[in-house]
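Exam revision sheet. Question 4 asks you to relate a sequence to its structure. Input first:
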Amino acid sequence: MQIEPQRFYSSARQFEEAAGYCRTVKVGPFLWVSGTTATDENGVVVGAGDITQQTVQACLNVERALREAGADVRHVVRTTMYVVNLRENADVVATVHKEFFGDHRPAATMVGVESLYREEMLFELQVDAFIPEEWFEVKSDQLAEAEAV
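Answer key, structure tokens:
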């Protein structure tokens, strides 16, 4: 059985380089997207102080990261949401999460945190995904190899 090497996808944000991590890592049909906040392409926080706007922007940033790695939101199997002022913001975050994923309902955890990397950040989203089409492609290749032996 041949294991596909890790592939790394960067958002090219300054913090990735400074902290020594990558936005997205993919191994075979499995995909992990690092905690993602509501920043624009220049690293500027979108919607400072606005939990709704930040949650939407973080979701859009995750969606972009998934697309770059060959996936989309229907491939997400788990989300972890980090929320500043959880008691105040949980309902808003839950509503945006539900609207963003629609009928696709990944396993989800919402965690209240005291703060995030920057003071104006209120929300961070981390996701894990599985791309079944790639899994079945690998399994088909393995069957063909086994039959050839």
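Marking note for examiners. The chain has a mean pLDDT of 86.
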